[in-house]
Amino acid sequence: MMFPDHFSQQASDYARYRPLYPSKLYEYLASLTPEHDRAWDVGTGNGQAAIGLARHYRSVIATDPSEQQIALATPHERVTYRVATAEDSGLEDQSIDLVAVSLAVHWFDLDRFYAEVKRVLKPQGVLAVWCYNLTGITPEVDAVMESYYHDVLGEFWPPQIHWVDEHYQTLPFPFAEIATPEFALEASWSLADLFGYLSSWSAAPKYKEAHGRDSLDVKRAEFEAAWGAAAHGAEINRAVRWPLYLRVGKSATS
Question: CA 73, CA 81: separation in Å to the nearest integer?
Fold first, then answer.
């Protein structure tokens, strides 16, 4: 089965530069399931969420349709990586305590994926999906980021990205929803780290294919000026923050 592959081309950048989710997120998700035998990390990418879940579940099945992503995923004794789609996992009926999807559910065929979730979840199982969007660094850097995201890359984003822009609030979610605490990702980055992260965005290679140059070249000087690189040197580190947008549900509604 074909799938919309937005990340294989830049899989190494994805594995290197994506920020880490807070440990309290995994603790919270584990607190919601009565059993901790098996979790399914869907669209695992570099395996980041799978590793976090492995601290709380005896076994984690981590799937991704991209062979390149799976090849670069971080090994862990409790994590089994498989090349598989979200809509056809190959998992047994009612075998999963937690289904987790980090920054990926918007790429799925939602009807088919939700049917698969209902099939594999145990009766008291939980589905959790989450995303983050633009960074919060400084007002000056954030303004350049907004322009880069919308004005430079806007036409190259796949249509599904609107779910992320809307912080998953408009995403169809046919489960009994649970109110969740607030979480955020935080990092201390140099400008080089930020550029590496931006190169992992799915729109970046599409821009390059269309224009024959790196999309960052359009805004590189503005980023450097906003970061303060000219005055302080490019390696100055800044605090970077992403609010996390989380939706959690239990048994399906009618």
Answer: 8
